[in-house]
Amino acid sequence: MARFIFVTGGVVSSLGKGLSSASLAYLLQSRGYKVRLRKLDPYLNVDPGTMSPFQHGEVFVTNDGAETDLDLGHYERFSGVSAKKSDNITTGKIYNDVLKKERKGEYLGKTVQVIPHITDRIKEFIKNDSSKEDFVICEIGGIVGDIESLPFVEAIRQFANDIGKKNTLFIHLTLVPYLKSSDEIKTKPTQHSVKELRSIGIQPDIIICRSERPIPLEHRKKISLFCNVDIKNVIETVDVRTIYEAPISFYREKLDVQVLNYFKLKSKRPVNLNPWKKITKIILQTKKQVNIAIIGKYVELKDAYKSLDEALTHGGIENKVKVNLVRIDSEKLKISEIPIKLKDISGILIPGGFGKRGTEGKIAAIKYARNNKIPFLGICYGMQMAIIEFARNKLNIKKATSSEFDKKGLPVIGLINEWIKDGKTVRGTDKNLGGTMRLGSYEAKLKENSMIRKIYGKKVINERHRHRYEVNTNYKDKFEKKGMNFSGFSPDGLLPEIIELKNHPWFIGVQFHPEFKSRPLAPHPLFSSFIKASKNHK
Ligand code: GLN
């Protein structure tokens, strides 16, 4: 049976529970164990699919089409294991499941309550769909003490009782602040947070202390004493210079060794930290820089394009160049300012997006990239905008638009049943926003002699999707005559997956999201190639 590791947070959020869990997963894997990572989110949304990236950061998409929390992206990037639908759950989903069951009369008239019905459903989720994992690491979103996270904390307490404490480990991540004015490190917030956790019946086995500076032994002793945790299990995590250093830093602190000791397990082989050391060195020592503009609607919140930022950095690692991300708000981008704003830019990227706001700025920037032969990568909405730009400015179809935001124009981008009139090809047009998209991994066939085929070095690829609208192929011949090659299609030949320009050094649009599959130890070929082209541009 798998052993279960629960990671809770204390004092403040955003301390890096996801990164800590992901690093631990890497270390345990490297020691020869099979690991699975899961996230339990306390909010009431059924899934993060309809949540604004402004508030919640990126929506991460799994191969099997789940719209999940961005922490699952960290998990995949560090552990290399593809997350699944069954790896993320929210309070909303739990209640939804329980209430559906209640309506069907499956509780046989009993009073439905948080304990045991909600907690039972949480426990079911923790255990579900596992296959011979040695460890399942479950991160609980939010912090201990939040009203929302209470049922989760109660459920994991019960869970440890159900399967035996020796098969369950509790890790609590807290903040140990440094006060500049008195030049002191403070352990009190950690003590209070652990007290809170113990009041709900959980004694942490390991405390990870996030701190700005190294925590002296006497302070660790204090935490050990007041929180009732073995001194060896008081682990510090001092701010790293790059996130890729996190596995190295946790290894130094012996987090993985302490976890194995707890379960009375031996390491099956030594940890291999070389890949992380190599990329940390590249990130920290590389002098050559390349400026990449990301022109999108959600640029204000850093996490809104998390996987994308990561994938671009991975492309930089592959090309030994530092990637400077220049975030430009497409809504505020005035057409007249484009030449000035993009003066020092070597590559332009338009990411995925929804709705009308900011589209004209994106289209104008694409025109600039096309005319000035600046490397361009359009992702999902970015590809759709590239189609509209080309139709308007090269095919002279001035009314070219997407039916997503303009019902009167000519939809070169539209819902599939708007432009395929065979009566067979329909996608659900369920009014419920959460359920009508092309989601998850789909195959695409790449055309011979295309740039994209060279970049991937494959004939068939699998990439993740998250969109409702598609490029209308009724205009394909016109586009191709003017130099835009439709170089990748869905296997049935109906849906354009990739477009590229012939008379341009590097201009590619993809209907999918390649960023979800890029990993620091295996950079995605499309991003490596884009950064290479950008590096050569200036
Ligand atoms: N809004 C577009 C669609 O639904 C693109 C979505 C995206 O970029 N992820 O098709």
Could you describe the 3D structure shown?
The protein is α/β, with parallel strands linked by helices. The chain has two domains: 275 residues, Rossmann fold; 249 residues, Rossmann fold, CATH 3.40.50.880. It is built from 19 helices and 23 strands. The strands form five sheets. Strands 13-12-14-15-23-22-21-18-19 form a nine-stranded mixed beta sheet, with helices on both faces. Helix 1 packs across helix 9. The longest helix is centred in the N-terminal third of the chain and has 14 residues. It is globular. It starts with a strand and ends with a helix. It binds glutamine (GLN).
Distance between the termini: 55 Å
Q: List how many beta strands DSSP finds.
A: 23
Indicate the CATH topology of the largest domain. Answer: Rossmann fold
Task: Determine the strand fraction and express it as a percent band.
Answer: 15-25%
Question: What is the CATH superfamily of the largest domain?
Answer: P-loop containing nucleotide triphosphate hydrolases
Helix-and-strand structural type: alpha/beta
Number of domains: 2
Strand order of the largest sheet: 13-12-14-15-23-22-21-18-19
Distinct small molecules bound, one entry per kind: glutamine
Fraction of helical residues = 25-40%
Helical run tally: 19
CATH class of the largest domain: Alpha Beta
Q: Main beta sheet: strand number and arrangement? A: 9 strands, mixed
Radius of gyration from CA coordinates: 25 Å
CATH architecture term of the largest domain = 3-Layer(aba) Sandwich
Mean pLDDT: 92
Which spans of ≥5 residues are poorly predicted at pLDDT below 50? 430-435
What sort of overall outline do the alpha carbons produce when their principal axes are compared? Answer: globular
